[in-house]
Write a structure and sequence with these properties.
single chain; alpha/beta; six-stranded parallel beta sheet; two-stranded antiparallel sheet
């Protein structure tokens, strides 16, 4: 059976390489069959050090997995069956999704969905307008230890929760939208939908 052709938008995140390895390397112990990353749109942000300083290395690694790189985002959208939006810079996510949404192909948007509530809402509205399947989230929502803990208790009895997660602050990425999403996702997994109050306490080396 022909594998699902998967395209990557944004090559400046380590996740672009990590996901490609899981999908393209059959020797990887966590290999996921059924799909293969075939094409990627190169992009990086010149004012975001974590983006521009690593983009070329990630492009080289993607080529090693047989991924075709291009400067044309639309060719990735047209030539692939599903898309992974992996740009490290949350500021570009809305515009990149705007170019992908009309194709109505499934899109996974890596954390964060955006760096403002307005951006996030516009992405959701575009998905509804074009009937484009979209998902975004943190892997910590599905952490094995978290799932094991929840399986041992009655979730309806939980009234509040405390989680710990990394929270490095990047000046260009807003305050909580970038890494703060990890803690938020765990809280929603524990408590369910809706939110009455959230408190953030940060200390060197740890964030609650």
């Amino acid at each position: 059976m022909e594998k699902l052709r998967i395209g990557i938008i944004g090559t400046d995140s380590s996740h672009a390489v990590a996901f490609t390895k899981l999908l393209n390397d059959a020797a990887d112990p966590y290999y996921v069959p059924g799909g293969k990353v075939t094409k990627a749109y190169k992009s990086s942000s010149p004012d975001f050090e974590l983006s521009y300083s690593r983009a070329e290395r990630f492009c080289r690694e993607l080529r090693e997995y047989g991924v075709e790189l291009t400067d044309d985002i639309q060719s990735v959208v047209n030539d692939c069956d599903a898309l992974l939006l992996e740009s490290a810079d949350g500021r570009v996510r809305l515009e990149q999704f705007r170019q992908a949404a009309p194709a109505r192909k499934p899109v996974f948007i890596d954390k964060s969905l955006g760096i403002t509530l307005r951006d996030a809402r516009q992405i959701v509205e575009l998905a509804w307008d074009y009937e484009t399947p979209v998902m975004s989230g943190s892997a910590l929502r599905y952490a094995v230890k978290l799932e094991e803990g929840l399986a041992r208790i009655d979730r309806s009895t939980i009234k509040k929760a405390t989680v710990m997660c990394p929270l490095p602050i990047e000046p260009t990425q807003s305050r909580y939208f970038w890494y703060g999403i990890h803690g938020a996702e765990m809280l929603y997994r524990i408590l369910g939908q809706g939110c009455k109050e959230v408190q953030v306490d940060a200390a060197e080396g740890r964030t609650f």
